[in-house]
Amino acid sequence: MGIFHVMILFGLVPLLEVGIVGAGSPLVFNVLNFGAKGNGVADDTQIEGTVIAPNDPRKWRGIDPTLWLQFESVSKLNVSGSGEINGRGQNWWKQSCKISPKAAIKFADCSDLWVTNLRSVDSQQFHISILNSQRVTISNLKIVAPGLSPNTDGIHIQNSQHVRVEKSVIGTGDDCISIGTSVYDVHIEQIACGPGHGISIGSLGKYGTEATVEDVFVRFSNFYETTNGVRIKTWQGGKGFARGISFEHCNFTNVDNPIIIDQYYCDGVPGKCKNQKNTIRVSNVTYSNLQGTSRTPAAISLNCSQSVPCNLLQFDMVNLISSDHKINPQAYCINAHGNAKGFINPKISCLQ
Ligand SMILES: *[C@@H]1O[C@H](CO)[C@@H](O)[C@H](O)[C@H]1NC(C)=O
Ligand SMILES: *[C@@H]1O[C@H](CO)[C@@H](O)[C@H](O)[C@H]1NC(C)=O
Ligand SMILES: *[C@@H]1O[C@H](CO)[C@@H](O)[C@H](O)[C@H]1NC(C)=O
Ligand SMILES: *[C@@H]1O[C@H](CO)[C@@H](O)[C@H](O)[C@H]1NC(C)=O
């Protein structure tokens, strides 16, 4: 077990409390009582320790079960270290997800946030959530959980703008990185993803909600033995858009479905979600310089809504071959429009 090291450069917030839920009392530690200056200049790094969650979910009884570590309303925060944050999620994964904490580490209403050099293992659900935050850099993280642990997304980003996620290794039981609604200007680069469900925009538009996602760039990343590679998933009945998205210079190794747009996402209940008139509008999505191996015939699946087709899909240099030469990779196209140029394999019949 390493040392967890938090560097807190206080900006606008005069007081920061670190609440370690379930740690026994006191539940809240005021870092000012532990030598932090909080003057925006001093390096308040003396707050060290090993961060490990209680083994037993019953420790959360009577307190907010959606949280473990939370940083809220902080500007100019630098969380960095060489140690480990261990959510000991094994006992949570066995239970109904309704009572699981949503995130091991949640950053909410933060701005100018840096999260670097951390290692997060076996989170109860999402490892790291970035909510309602602006100007965030996440870099050099290692996030691990078993491939079969439920909903252990690596990094979840929602209601946040100007976010950079880079140089990180993420292997979990769900999406390596997932992007929710109201997200604008996100750069994801040099990620090694796997095992897990790949990098996902969505799911968006659940239960008729409105969602907007724009200017998301995923580049120079590798996917190893993931179920999906780069995915956009939306529910029928949603409102809003996902547009200006690009996936470039990525490699896939033994990935079930390397490229997928699924506008019929239904959380594992096929047929339960009816086609609807409202739907998230997916447009201007670029796939360029993507290559590797697909474990199923559905190497490319563009499954767009009947009421509002996907448009301005642009493919340029995409080559996906079979993992084992027994299957024949295909491109499936439903209500999808756009252009293809350069070498494209398998051929995408619906594009010009
Ligand atoms: C954050 O802290 C790390 C470790 O001390 C340091 O290397 C890095 O430069 C800091 N980043 C910023 C933006 O201050
Ligand atoms: C993908 O594979 C190619 C060929 O092996 C390599 O040149 C390229 O650097 C790889 N891309 C990444 C992001 O690792
Ligand atoms: C498509 O998205 C890119 C990247 O966000 C943007 O620069 C470009 O202007 C968009 N094109 C159209 C036609 O909207
Ligand atoms: C597209 O989605 C529909 C509805 O969920 C499903 O029936 C169909 O099999 C999907 N097609 C492909 C090629 O994934």
**If you compute it from the alpha carbons, what radius of gyration comes out, rounded to the nearest whole angstrom?**
21 Å
Helix proportion range: under 10%
Unreliable spans are 1-26
Major beta-sheet overview: 16 strands, mixed
What class do helices, strands and sheet pairing give?
mainly beta
CATH class of the largest domain: Mainly Beta
The total count of helices amounts to 1
Question: How are the SSEs ordered, and which strands pair?
Answer:
Blueprint: E1 4-7, E2 17-19, E3 28-30, E4 48-49, E5 51-52, E6 67-72, E7 75-80, E8 84-86, H1 90-93, E9 103-108, E10 111-116, E11 119-121, E12 126-131, E13 134-139, E14 142-144, E15 155-158, E16 161-171, E17 177-179, E18 183-193, E19 199-204, E20 210-224, E21 228-234, E22 239-255, E23 257-262, E24 281-294, E25 298-303, E26 310-322, E27 330-334, E28 336-345
The structure holds 2-acetamido-2-deoxy-beta-D-glucopyranose (4 copies).
Keywords: Cell wall, Cell wall biogenesis/degradation, Glycosidase, Hydrolase, Secreted, Signal
Subcellular location: Secreted, Cell wall
GO molecular function, one term: polygalacturonase activity
